[in-house]
Amino acid sequence: MTVEWAVALILGLATLLAWVRLWLWHSRAAATGQAASVRLALLMLLQPMVSVLLYCALFPPAVDGGATSLRIATAGTSRLPAAADGAPLILLPEAPAIGGGEAAPDLATALRRHPGVTAIHVLGDGLGPRDVDAARQVSVRFDPPPLRAGIVDLAPPPGVAAGGRFMVGGTLAGLDNATIELIDPAGRLTDSGAADRDGHFRLAGTVRAAGAVSFTLRVRKDKRLIEQADVPVWVTESARPKLLILAGAPGPEVKYLRRWASDAGFDVTTQMSAGGGIALGDAPVALDAAGLRRFDVAIVDDRAWAGMRGPLIAAVRGGLGLVLRAGGAIDGATRSQWQALGFGLSGPDGLMPLALPKAAEEAVARTRHGIGSDDAPVDMALPEDIAPDVSRLGLTPGDDGAVPLLEDAGGATLGAWRAIGLGRVALFTGIDSYALTLTGRRDLYGDWWQALLTAVARPAPSSSQMIPGMAWAGERMALCDIGSDAVVETADGVRTKLVPVAGCGGFWPAKAGWHRLRVKQELRPFHVQARDALPAMRAARDRQAMAMLSATSRDAPGTKITTGGSGSAWPFWVGWLAASALLWWLERSRIGRHAALHPVRQ
Predict the structure, then answer these.
(1) pTM of the model
(2) How far is C-alpha 601 from the geometric centre of its chain's CA atoms?
(3) Are 272 and 247 in contact (CB under 8 A)?
(4) What are the residues facing 191 on neighbouring strands?
(5) Strands 423-428 and 321-325
């Protein structure tokens, strides 16, 4: 039972008792001729009147005389249509200055100022995250404007290991034939490309040292800069993954694999068989369950696979990552064994030519190959006109449980992986891929093997994880899974302590750039975009949120807002005081009372 109902019940019982008392008095007074029916009627009428006025003074009713709908101007609202006559116009802070509008700091304040409102008409791009919760209390009408031209979606990488390669994806709207460029922190072109027919694009970049870095994404059309945005990349600092390379015979593929893996941040151990029980490479390691447990990932060719199949499969089930490669055409036994792992090898036996993708532009190639030196200038590593002699197995890996990973320029699958127990195994059908490094395609060689090893390697623990999502300066963001010791640090050293509620805390970033959330001994970095960055993306985000909110409003009509919208109580207090004074005076006055009839003495 609410307080209102309890007070109403008490006042009702008090009124009923007052009526009973008046009726009993009237019955006794009627016998002596002192009672008047008019007096009784007035007293019984004033009793419920006093009770009703007291209840209304304690709980004033809502005022219904105001407007029942409002027009809410947000960012992108057109001035002329909004200034036309209609429902009261509310100007949120993002809205332009429109004559005749009422400024409000947020939608909740506007609804408190207009307590009778049951519906709103949102103008412009839509409500932001600050006002969406308040809009759930009323019916919402929103006519979405056309999408702005620009970047409407951007997906930075969640985290990259030092020396690794990352991908940046996004979507463009209204920009056909536009060129997208990714610029590294040194101002050099890392990658460029064009969006597909749906506006989607993907660009690649490479990071060197651990820490927080910001790449720049630029959109150009007809050599004119349309839009640019920061792409935050958090480079994690973790232990060097341990890589085991097993080969049935020495060869150039093992040599160049070892060189690339060492430069890419792997701790490499190589074991090669030279026949007659002679092993080449690093110090021998025990290739049993305990020995293989030391490694995070292994690259094994078809010759070494034949003698190590049992221990390798057991190690994969325990979490080891495994990449199988072919040194040439494989025999029927190896094909059956690889098919038993879940790779449906289809196609002709033997080798087939591999279609290489087009080489990157010279500026992009220079960035990917590094700065260079006097002994090894970058020009020596640039792509040559002669294509390298790289082939592939005619067999194509694929099955319902296999995930395609690599494709050549002709669409043929070069690599796929699948899970086995706690680990993963990948199959690579490229032959003599080392030739890419000899003809200036070292970037493609690194992309292939980095993708293969990253997909299957045992995940390494990291002391920091980047908080996903996009945030803008001046907008509230929610940081969750925190405790009472959570602190946010900005790049200039300003610290802000968060007050958690149900495990989450609100934070309003004032500046753009990198921030760090510290929770106990854990570090969680996140990046904040500038206030005016990515306007098309913010508009698309608000548009999508408003579409979902409008659909909910149609299913459940808005209710009248009463919180904070009650009317004034003082008129009811004045009425109650007046009625109580009248009741007190009437009960003590002689009005309506007759003199008592006494018998005449003889």
Answers:
(1) 0.65
(2) 103
(3) yes
(4) 182
(5) parallel
Amino acid letter for position 278:
I
Cα 292 to Cα 282: distance, rounded to the nearest angstrom = 15
Eight-state DSSP code of residue 342: T
**120 φ, ψ (degrees, to nearest 5):** -130, 150
Q: Is 484 exposed, middle or buried (0-12, 13-18, 19+ CB in 10 A)?
A: exposed
SS3 388: coil
Q: Give the angle 427-166-429 at the CA atoms, nearest 5°.
A: 15
What is the Cα–Cα distance from 571 to 556, expressed in whole angstroms? Answer: 36
Cross-strand partners of 487: 497, 518
> How high is the mean pLDDT in each 10-residue block of the chain (602 residues)?
80 88 77 68 86 86 65 86 79 88 91 88 88 88 86 88 82 90 90 90 85 92 90 82 90 91 88 77 82 92 88 93 91 90 85 79 58 47 57 83 86 90 93 85 86 88 77 89 89 88 89 91 89 90 82 50 54 89 82 53 44
Full strand arrangement of the beta sheet holding 391-393: 351-353, 391-393, 430-431
d(CA 125, CA 148): 10
Q: b/e for 176-204, b at 16 or more Cβ within 10 A?
A: eebbbbbbbeeeebbbbeebeeebebebb
Alpha carbon of residue 318 to chain centroid: 33
C-alpha distances (whole Å) from 380 to each of 183, 388, 441, 442 are 23, 15, 11, 11
